[in-house]
Request: fold
Amino acid sequence: MGSDRRFDMRFDNHRVVITAAGRDFGRTLAIQLADLGAEIFLSARSLAAAECVRDEIRARGHQQVHAFACDLTDPSSIREFASDAALRTDRVDLLVNNGSRYLEGPDLLSASDADVVDTIASGATGTVLTVKNFLPLLLNSDKPDVVTMVSACGTPGHQRSDAHDAFYAAKSAQAGFAEILSKRLRPQGVRVISLYPPDFDNADPLSDQWENTPRGAKDSLTAQSLVECVLFAVAQPRDCFIKAFHFEQV
Ligand SMILES: NC(=O)c1ccc[n+]([C@@H]2O[C@H](COP(=O)([O-])OP(=O)(O)OC[C@H]3O[C@@H](n4cnc5c(N)ncnc54)[C@H](OP(=O)(O)O)[C@@H]3O)[C@@H](O)[C@H]2O)c1
Reply:
């Protein structure tokens, strides 16, 4: 982050897993957390995409970054991701459930059955199974956090998005899962933190646009602000359990 950085804490002792980090917000978060010193275990649906981001991070001088393939619609792929990560670390401090397929279209009939299955599987089933498979590593941490990128579409009564009903279903499932998990994992010291953003602008963190994106009261929510929300929540002392971030729309 640049000179007007609002967040100065380092994350050198954090081992962070991020799903779907081959592009867009997952990649952004991986690059930003690596810049702050975290060891990154990033996955993408294709190993090539994950390795590409790994190499971008290494080129910035940060070597503690590992790339994995993980298809969130495939339980065996998620299991393999967690078991491969466990060969390189005995603990995970932060799991970011970022991956979830987007499906456009307010008409229920506009999507194929396969698209519906894929959308719900990647966001809903994929999130549940990722937490399930990484939970043993999270419980080895003395500061475990699970962050889930839900969406305003996961908020009851929300209707402003043009996303397909299956995307609403996936995000509502993530929200319900995070809600119960938050209570059930609290006694074990795990904070479950969820973000419910509306559409946001996702500038490339390696471009000039990252520093120059307008962030005024009349502008759309930015990935920069969402990264700062995640960092802020995770950096709090353990008594401060920020459960959810909700955002007013422009
Ligand atoms: N962007 C927004 O305005 C917005 C608003 C609210 C919430 N969110 C949520 O924030 C998160 C990140 O958003 P984004 O804008 O970066 O998302 P995005 O641009 O729609 O990208 C979706 C990501 O999910 C991955 N993905 C899709 N299906 C997958 C599967 N089966 N297995 C593994 N990965 C899969 C994609 O990988 P591939 O590259 O392989 O396709 C891609 O990395 C998502 O959960 C999204 O729903 C986004």
The beta strands are 15-18, 39-44, 65-69, 94-97, 145-149, 191-196, 244-246.
